[in-house]
Predict the structure.
Amino acid sequence: MKNIILFGGAFDPIHLGHLNMAKKASEQFDAVVFFIPAKISVWKNESAPIEDKLKMVELAIKDFGEENTFFVSDYEAKLPNDVNYSIDTVKHFKEMYPEDKLFLLIGGDQVDSFHRWKDADEIAKLAQVIYYGRLNSEELATNIKRFNMKAVKGEDIDISSTEIRNGSSLETTDSVINYMIDHKLYFINKISTMMNEYRFTHSMSVARLSYEIALANGLKDAKKAYLAALLHDVGKEMPQVEQNKIVEKYFPEYLDIQEDLYHQFVGAYLAEKEFGVKDPVVLEAIKFHTTGNGNISEVARIVYCADKIEPTRGFNSKSLINAMESSLKDGFKAVMTSNIEYYDRHRIDYRNRLTLACLKDYYL
């Protein structure tokens, strides 16, 4: 007899919280885990086709290194109805594995409503109900006792699929992010509607390069560089008159900067207002990705450089990319040297106060 954990949910998309939750449960109950994506969640709307969700779970399992313990089931995906119930899934697995012990893993936030689930008592007879997450109310003890629920021990996980869908977080695995980009899922699709295909390709290239540079330099905030770069040009194609209005209202301190540079401020505004980004590190990187500035974060310096040397720019930037990946300090200087030479050759005036502050702090 083996132990089998059934872990159903929207997984729209799967994130690191789901994976860590499953890992803790698997270890505590010595069990394999079946992730069972729902076609349409009973509890909320979803925004990715079930085929994509299944693929993303598969990719996440591989990234997480649990291919011998975690598995993805398409049982609910293949059912004819859009809405299915946990009791039917539990019965299916009981028929498939009659000699094995079944567990049903739920979040702590589902404990207080479990009695309202269809045939909840029968579910609890067929499978041991286990829950993850800190409970906030003594009233939940009623359901815990009634259904003989067991707790999965682990730290609180503050990660939300909603934040990933909206574009304020990238707390999922690398392959899932790449899949989202390649298939224009969630906020990536929104980005694509805000710019032409060339700029979208450029933005995705900047994002991937930013992430690679951040990882090569051992940044703990590597995903922040990725997110900032994904969003850095969302304001670029807004009509100039609209850009001017946003800068006049929200960034009046930068009205002395050239108008063709306003898109960086507008990008930071849109990242917060349209995509829900609150992280000051991410917003700063977007805000100064064209000009740079004095005393900016490592993330901001990475996005600034990646924007100028990403492979689709049309010149051989391999040496500069290698320099950035080898040393953020030295690579940043190399990119700035190349950039200044470019400006001088094309007689472009780069001497605004933000770029001069950047040169003073990191170059001169």
Observations:
- Strands lie at 3-9, 31-37, 70-72, 101-107, 128-132, 150-152.
